Amino acid sequence: MTTPTGSALSVVVLDYGFGNVRSAVRAVERAGAAVELTASFDRALAADGLVVPGVGAFAACMRGLGAVQGSRLIGRRLAGGRPVLGICVGMQVLFEAGVEHGVTTQGCGEWPGRVERLRADVVPHMGWNTVEPPPATQMFAGVERERFYFVHSYAAREWTLRTGGRIAAPRVGWTEHAGDRFVCAVENGPLWATQFHPEKSGDAGARLLRNWLDTLPAGR
Amino acid sequence: MRVIPCLDVRGGRVVKGVNFVDLRDAGDPVEMARLYDAEGADELCFLDITASSDSRETTWDVVSRTAEEVFIPLTVGGGVRSVTDVDRLLRAGADKVAMVTAAIERPAVMAEIADRFGSQVLVLSIDARRSADQPSGFEVTTHGGRRSAGLDAVEWARRGCELGAGEILLNSMDADGTRAGFDLEMLAAVRAVCTVPLVASGGAGAVADFAPAVSAGADAVLAASVFHFGDLRIAEVKDALRAGHHLVR
Q: Considering A29, A61, A88, A187, which one is annotated as catalytic?
């Protein structure tokens, strides 16, 4: 939790009962930030960066996020241009809705679109897969051709957010599993997200996390 | 395609014996985890083969120290019986937990774990051997292969997928320790009914053994002693898989 200098970037990993939080904390620490694991709204709002982890079910994660006002927290941070990184189900809940076993659960709604079950014969999609990074990517700088660790049964197959005028279009990365193509990464201003687990993706994941830390305001 | 070294841990040390008897010490688990990570292992698996209640603290400590410095997925098995056990291991830094006996004794525990943490954390580990007593020709065993569980291994794998397992770890007790290759027939039989990733285990002896396991339907290959004693290196196995046109990291 401590770093040699007082000027280290501060990152909160949101502790809302879901996710391999310990791995996320250690991996972001290794990438160079001072990391705090907490459910505190104020601490999470004030940090230079916020990581929203998540594993398991969409509906359960949304319940957990609800208990810590996660949706409002993410919205408040983004309104102020403060970076947020969603990982795995922490990415899925940023969409409008998730559909599990025929039941639709409302998500945080930062982006339009639904998260649905993968269609492959073998699910979960588990293992190291390649990615198709977005053009002009910052997230994958230096690791464009690396494999990342995925473990999930659901994904967003469509990206429907349209932007125009002076708003920069989000950069969207894709991955394919057994012919099923889905969104694996989004760089949308201060809101970044990955369907894979950078904290479990070895050196490639560490580089990606450093790329994210480089976007944090205090790091500029 | 994943290559997974498995570390059988007893009292905080790595061991692996031929057919699970005559154990030999092969080192410190954290040290070996770091080594395998550096060598390109795609995941790691720790099996606590003592699995007694007093060894649990040691296992948690090993898992926690490993998760501090190794950033690839970690599966932990041995003595996992309940949602509480899973919670404890995940908090220590495990990504998945493997169950053998408790799932047989009370199959509903699989659904309880999947409901709470998602099926991706739950690995159903099946220690199977050939037997004329079961319709598929393969039966489930417990106690390191010493006892028959009275279950058909293929049917048990199918049911495991239904009950919430996110992965099947299929260990051939006949092939284990023999280094004569994986049981390809058993792999193919389980693959035919298995809707989740399938990990082949037991029998790896040479680099040429791995590609046939993948062709038989395995999504990942696991081995212990051939890696621990330096007979095979992870990179050699991956080269052989690549040569067989299988995708590896």
A: A88
